[in-house]
Amino acid sequence: MKTKKITEMADVIRSKNAGPYELTLDVIFKSEAHYSAVKESGFFSKELIADLYSISPQEVIDIIFFDPARALKVTLKREIPCGGIGDSDIYGAQQHGPLLNLKIPV
């Protein structure tokens, strides 16, 4: 099966806080064709995200496709609350790295 790097399919790949206890990962696709291919593939799952982030699938709160924006939103629990002792990324802006090397079947 042919694959394509997510960085070739998306304009935006980012992370940010979703409150003090949750983190949001956003992927905004370049085209409707890329977005639809990913959405229909079923590639993104709680198990995939859990493997990427070395967490349990129960810590992946939700995976949402938002058609009007051609976007994928993943919400997961933060290991350490925002600003807590040991938190190395208070804004949650450096947590999207594991997504960058994904190869998606198309």
Describe the structure.
By secondary structure, the protein is an alpha+beta fold. The protein has a domain at 17-81. Helices cover 21% and strands 34% of the residues. The chain has three helices and six strands, in the order βαββααβββ. It has helices at 6-9, 32-41, 46-53; strands at residues 3-5, 10-17, 22-29, 60-66, 71-77, 103-105. A four-stranded antiparallel β-sheet has the order 2-3-5-4. A two-stranded antiparallel ribbon has the order 1-6. A hairpin with a 4-residue loop joins strand 4 and strand 5. The longest helix is centred in the middle third of the chain and has 10 residues, at 32-41. The chain is elongated and about 45 Å long. The protein starts with a strand and ends with a strand. The mean pLDDT is 96.
The fraction of residues in strands falls at 25-35%
Major sheet attributes: 4 strands, antiparallel
How many extended strands? 6
- Helical content stands at 10-25%
Task: Please tell me what the overall shape is.
Answer: elongated
- Numbering strands along the chain, what is their spatial order in the largest sheet? 2-3-5-4
The average pLDDT is 96
Question: Which H/E pattern describes the elements?
Answer: EHEEHHEEE
Structural class: alpha+beta
Number of helices: 3
* Distance N to C terminus: 8 Å
Rg of Cα set: 14 Å
Uncertain ranges = none
Question: What is the compact description of this entry?
Answer:
This protein is 21% helix and 34% strand.
Which SSEs are present, and which pair or pack?
Blueprint: E1 3-5, H1 6-9, E2 10-17, E3 22-29, H2 32-41, H3 46-53, E4 60-66, E5 71-77, E6 103-105
Antiparallel strand pairs: 1-6, 2-3, 3-5, 4-5
